[in-house]
Amino acid sequence: MFVRMIAKAFLRQWKKMLMIAFTIALGASLATAMLSVMMDVEDKMNQELKAYGANITVVPKSASVISDLYDVGDENVSGTYLKEDELGKIKTIFWAFNIVDFTPFISTEVTLDNGDKGQVTGTWFNHHMDLPTGEELDAGIASLRSWWTITEGEWLDEQGSHSGDYAMVGTLYAQRENLSVGDKIHVTGSAADKELEVVGIFDAGGDEDDLIYVPVDTAQELGGLEGKIDSIEVSALTTPDNELAVKAARDPSSLSVSQYETWYCTAYVSSICYQIEEVITDSVASAVRQVADSEGQILNKTKLLMILITILSMVGAALGICNLVTASVMERSQEIGLMKAIGAHNPAITALVLAEVMCTAVIGGIAGFYAGIGFAQIIGHSVFDSAISIRPMVVPVVGVLVAIVTLIGSIPAIRMLLNLRPTEVLHGR
Amino acid sequence: MSLLELKNVSKIYGSLHALDHVSLKVEKGEWLAIMGPSGSGKSTMMNIIGALDKATEGEILLDGVDIAKKNARALTDIRRDKIGLIFQQFHLVSYLTAVENVMLAQYYHSVPDEKEALEALDRVGLADRAHHYPSQLSGGEQQRVCVARALINYPEIILADEPTGNLDEANEEIVVELFRKLHMDGTTLVVVTHNPEVAEVAQRTIVLRNGRVDHEMINENFTGKIKHITLQ
């Protein structure tokens, strides 16, 4: 009888039920879309934020100490270096998958033909590596400094036509020395001298515009620094810092065993730095705080925005349900009064009304969920140019949200139902 | 012992005494009609007897139990188990068929039994209309469904509030005839009505005025003779 009554009540007031289902679907679709984007946004945002460059720098331990003590910036005054042959190990750490890109730097002082002292920086442009894991990697400054614009010529192609003594120069340096693509720069290092052909002029918008960039091995030959590098810049996908990450960044040994495991197995920038230090001998890896903090803040704010939209959509849905269910109960007050008059207790009538609303909620929730997946994909393609992957966790979360919102939205109607006196509706008194 | 006994029952709304120290006895198997002008307290009395409302003061003994002291939940149980209600506006659930409307009362009482519900409809002459919706039934047919619903749980007493108020003469005749049959079967009937023709077929009629029992009339042996008794 109960099922028959629900089914028939559904058919009788299908327009109202459709409105309730639509309201729930609207809330559920927004919640699904926002939760899906929120759960996937970290990876998406991380990938977007990688355009802003490396978020980890690795330097020799002694250079780090001197830098901390005397604030000498990036200049390698310690005379200690990292080993180039250990670079591949960066892709063997626990969070290797999160290492998006990295490139080494080695600077050496040179003398130009006019007698001026200058600096040549060796780096990877599009370096190809066969990793110890058997994988292959193409990394370098071309992808790490994606905001550099080539004003003349092209990127130095290490793997192709530019293997040898080639260079890229910044716009300021090119203007000062009146250089164009194809021109030669004769530089004399402490160990060798070389004739570098300019293949590209770049505009970095910073200090780099006054520098000469050459492949790592060229710089090493000039300075007699074979196999040595000054620093490494690493771009990694990271999880925004929390209290645990901050505590660990200060001193990992202060963590308990379980905290340590949690921290080590989470892609915090500090845990990735720690793992890099484990594989690069005598190194100190530190987060580029401006980038790392910005990433964390942007991610947290984006997530907060998504949560707020989800809450607002659910509040809106609850208000809509509240109006519609209350209107439905008011419309059916005589029917409810009659049920009470012939012996129905309040819980039985409440169960009947709630069952109707919950059935509607299930239909609306399912429709809203699938609509929400669609919305999420629209957001993914229009904002991130890629699909949003729907996490299984979204299903129970949206289910619980829909149930809670439906119940909360039904409270005023249930209160009205409980307070309804049969005499008032059956006799009009 | 009377099936129903009201002792000095009053219902007061602010300064209005809808019922003013009313005392009344209804014996088992009796057919009582309650008459009176609008505002005389008929429906208030009906609501109080029907456990739909609570008296401000006084005792209401139904089958020896004082229902005036019962809480809302207990009153619901009393309505369910002991009282059959018939309304002027029928109050059938529009999306349920005639037989389902009868089964609704069974559902809230015990277990719905379609066969028994169909038998109840057969008793009121509606076996062939059992699967029609209220909108497909005439007023008289709807009221007969209402009677079947009131009877289905074998109540101690049937309370009918203006049962013919919305019916034409032909249907009024049918419903009155139905009441006559119920009375002959031993059912206790209390019928509130404006209609003297409905009242005069009852065994006894009380007339309310200003919340008090103004006078009582007894229909002797259903001969049409009415004995007039004026009360204090």
Helix and strand topology:
The complex is a heterodimer of chains A (429) and B (232).
Chain A: H1 2-12, H2 14-49, E1 56-60, H3 61-70, E2 82-83, E3 99-112, E4 117-123, E5 127-130, E6 136-139, H4 141-144, E7 149-153, E8 166-170, H5 171-177, E9 184-188, E10 193-203, E11 212-215, H6 216-223, E12 228-229, E13 231-236, H7 243-250, H8 257-264, H9 269-279, E14 283-287, H10 289-331, H11 333-341, H12 346-384, H13 394-419, H14 422-426
Parallel strand pairs in A: 4-11, 8-10
Antiparallel strand pairs in A: 1-13, 1-14, 2-12, 3-4, 3-9, 3-13, 5-6, 7-10, 8-11, 9-10
Helix pairs in contact in A: 1-12, 2-10, 2-12, 2-13, 10-13, 12-13
Chain B: E1 4-13, E2 16-26, E3 31-35, H1 42-49, E4 57-62, E5 65-66, H2 72-82, E6 83-86, H3 98-109, H4 114-123, H5 139-151, E7 157-161, H6 169-184, E8 188-192, H7 196-199, E9 204-209, E10 212-219, E11 226-230
Parallel strand pairs in B: 3-8, 3-9, 6-7, 7-8
Antiparallel strand pairs in B: 1-2, 1-4, 4-5, 9-10, 10-11
Helix pairs in contact in B: 3-4, 3-5, 4-5, 5-6
How would you briefly describe this protein structure?
Chain A is of the alpha+beta class and 429 residues long. Chain A is built from 14 helices and 14 strands.
CATH class of chain B: Alpha Beta
Count of β-strands of chain A: 14
- CATH topology of chain B: the name is Rossmann fold
- Number of β-strand runs of chain B: 11
Percent of residues in beta strands of chain B: 25-35%
Mean pLDDT of chain A: 84
Provide the CATH superfamily of chain B: P-loop containing nucleotide triphosphate hydrolases
Whole-number radius of gyration of chain A?
A: 32 Å
What is the count of helical runs of chain B? 7
Structure, explained:
Chain A has helices at about 1-10, 15-50, 60-70, 140-145, 170-175, 215-225, 245-250, 255-265, 270-280, 290-330, 335-340, 345-385, 395-420, 420-425, and strands at about 55-60, 80-85, 100-110, 115-125, 125-130, 135-140, 150-155, 165-170, 185-190, 195-205, 210-215, 230, 230-235, 285. With about 425 residues, chain A is an alpha+beta fold. Chain A folds into two domains: about 1-45 and about 295-425, no CATH class; about 55-285, no CATH class. Chain A is elongated and about 110 Å long. The two termini of chain A are about 30 Å apart. The mean pLDDT of chain A is about 85. Chain B has a single domain (about 30-55, about 70-230), classed as Rossmann fold (3-Layer(aba) Sandwich). Chain B is built from seven helices and eleven strands. A seven-stranded mixed β-sheet of chain B has the order 6-7-8-3-9-10-11, with helices on both faces. Chain B has a four-stranded antiparallel β-sheet with strand order 2-1-4-5, with helices on one face. The relative contact order of chain B is 0.18. Residues about 225-230 of chain B have low confidence and may be disordered. The chains are: A alpha+beta (about 425), B alpha/beta (about 230). The interface between A and B is medium-sized, with 26 and 30 residues.
